[in-house]
Specification:
Layout: H1 5-30, H2 37-44, H3 48-54, H4 58-62, H5 66-78, H6 86-101, H7 107-115, H8 117-140, H9 148-167, H10 171-192
Helix pairs in contact: 1-2, 5-6, 5-8, 6-9, 6-10, 7-8, 8-9, 9-10
Length: 197
């Protein structure tokens, strides 16, 4: 007898979270470089193949919300109500993402990332992927009437707001500061080309 889809998805999500939590604990206890994939799999009581079915790489274990962040950003565009402005919707999502990254206990994780060349490189590639996904979604929205160059520029600034916000002493203020610039640029575009409003 097969399991109902809802139960199967819940079990899959629980396994994924268990692996991510185990990996993070081991990385913080022993150091990122000292822990291997086999160590994580053994501690989480899963096969290495199971671990790789959830995470494409060791670095992805640290950035386990990468895909969720991508979905949040793209849904901020695609799930807007008719006529809802783009920039406030994106600002709201980026604030939520930065709050997650600044939660209590996140400091040691970010120090570990900052001290690891592999993790810093992965974070940079993740930011590029997030920006590209967001740019594609913005450009594809017919209501926004936005060309590829404008879409990519806006997306890169949005991801910069996320990156700068997570590093700032006052994350909320940093995000708002960047979004004020994004909003001003977007409004200037709409004044220049009323058809895009």
């Amino acid at each position: 007898m097969t399991e109902p889809p809802g139960r199967r998805e819940r079990k899959k999500a629980a396994t994924r979270q268990k692996i991510a939590d185990t990996a993070l604990r081991l990385f913080l206890e022993r150091g990122y470089e000292a822990v291997g994939i086999r160590d994580v799999a053994a501690e989480a009581d899963v096969a290495v193949t199971t671990l790789f079915s959830h995470f494409a790489s060791k670095e992805a274990l640290v950035f386990e919300r990468d895909d969720e962040f991508r979905q949040l950003l793209t849904r901020a565009v695609t799930e807007r109500t008719a006529g809802e402005p783009l920039i406030p919707a994106l600002r709201h999502v980026v604030h939520a993402m930065v709050r997650h990254c600044a939660e209590n206990g996140a400091g040691p994780i970010w120090r570990m990332i900052d001290e690891s060349h592999a993790l810093r490189d992965y974070e940079q590639s993740m930011m590029v992927r997030l920006a590209e996904a967001l740019a594609t979604t913005i450009t594809a929205d017919p209501e926004l009437a936005c060309g590829a160059t404008t879409g990519r520029a806006i997306a890169r600034f949005v991801i910069a707001a996320f990156s700068l916000g997570r590093q700032a002493a006052d994350p909320e203020a940093a995000v708002d500061e960047v979004f004020d610039l994004i909003d001003a640029a977007w409004q200037a575009r709409e004044r220049r080309d009323p058809a895009s409003a």
